[in-house]
Amino acid sequence: MKKILPFILFSVFVSAQKVELIKLNQNIKDKNGRTKSLTLIDNRPDKTIGTIADKDEMAEIKFADENLKSHIENWFLNDNKKLGNTDIVIMLEELKVYDEQDRNKDFPYAKLKIKISSFLKRNDKYYFINRFDNVIVCNPKVTAHAQRFLAPRISDIISEFIKVSYSNTISGTFIPENEINNYNEYLSKNYKAFNNPELKDGVYINFKSFYNQEPNAGYSVEKNRKGKVVRLMQNDLQTSISEMYCYVEGGKGYKLTPVGFDGMKKDEKGFSIFSSRVNLFAENKGGGAMVGAIAGGVVGALIGAAIDSASSSNSGAMNGIGYKSTIESYVYIDSLTGGYIFTK
């Protein structure tokens, strides 16, 4: 009896643990009717999403249907009765929830790490479409039950990412089928900004020109007496400084952000700037924090915009998803999209 009792108590504890389900049930119709199929590659090394604290208990987050590949592929077919001729592949690379107490914070914050990519497939060749690689933070001062915030965000991110992938342009370089699991390294061979020994001086209007190390002709910056950039010139005419992605001077890059220019650092992972979410994410029109304050289509629109942020010259500098933390850390610039990758 003594041996049985601990087992019973353990079983009761496990069964009493809260579970929050991720329900993938939004509409993912391709409005242009171009897509024929949607295939999932689940490359997560660990399929367990994780548990986070909910007051004095623990809450697990998991998919309502854990046969994820079958569910997503059927989800697409159920929402798309009219099919096109394009095959889209979604790769889920990371999906974890966890509690982390950052430096100078009095308590831990629940966080979500997600990395998801998409490709167009033609025969045995893949073409990169998009990637969303980020950490979403939940503010416990605003949200009482973090799992109830993070689980719907996972669903929102996946559904919005799929819809963005229907219409985004593809990269020109194809990836052989036997290299698809190693696509980042394969494509990074063409990343001239990272692979060239020195950056070319000049102004870069978008991430693509920076990636290819092709400064935009006719553009220049002007500084004040303190050495601060105050104007962007196109030939002899002043133009909006917001049109700039970054500029390079003396071989060093300076990235435009909503609060000014941040120097770019290069290491083995790529380029980064030292900043925070509150500095990089512009306020929404209504102001205030997003956590727990928005619902429905507004969330979808913001997530879609964040996922598609690399299409703008000032990529990533827009409404973020989750708490706009003041924590400063090295924020990486996605080597394939130009979007921001937070690690904290």
For this entry, give a set of tags.
alpha+beta; about 35% strand; about 350 residues; five-stranded mixed sheet; 2 domains; about 20% helix
Task: Describe the secondary-structure layout.
Elements (H helix, E strand, L loop, with lengths): L3 H13 L1 E5 L12 E8 L8 E4 L2 E7 L4 H12 L6 E15 L8 E14 L2 E14 L7 H22 L6 E3 L6 H6 L3 H4 L6 E3 L2 H5 L7 E5 L5 E6 L2 E3 L6 E4 L2 E6 L2 E4 L1 E3 L2 E6 L1 H4 L16 H11 L21 E5 L6 E2 L3
Helix pairs in contact: 3-8
Which H/E pattern describes the elements?
HEEEEHEEEHEHHEHEEEEEEEEHHEE
Q: Work out the radius of gyration.
A: 22 Å
Number of domain modules: 2
Share of residues in helices: 10-25%
Shape, per Cα inertia axes: globular
Distance between the termini: 47 Å
Q: Approximately how much beta-strand content do the residues carry?
A: 25-35%
Low-confidence stretches: 8-15, 284-298, 311-318
Q: Major sheet: size, sense and barrel closure?
A: 5 strands, mixed
Kindly name the structural category: alpha+beta
Average predicted confidence as pLDDT: 85
Number of helices: 8
Spatially, the strands of the biggest sheet line up as: 2-5-6-7-8
Q: What does this protein look like?
A:
The chain has helices spanning 4-16, 68-79, 146-167, 183-188, 192-195, 207-211, 277-280, 297-307, and strands at residues 18-22, 35-42, 51-54, 57-63, 86-100, 109-122, 125-138, 174-176, 202-204, 219-223, 229-234, 237-239, 246-249, 252-257, 260-263, 265-267, 270-275, 329-333, 340-341. With 344 residues, it is α+β, with helices and mostly antiparallel strands. It has 2 domains: 16-186; 191-341, no CATH class. A 5-stranded mixed beta sheet has the order 2-5-6-7-8. Strands 9-13-14-15 form a 4-stranded antiparallel beta sheet. Strands 16-17-18-19 form a 4-stranded antiparallel beta sheet. 34% of the residues are buried.
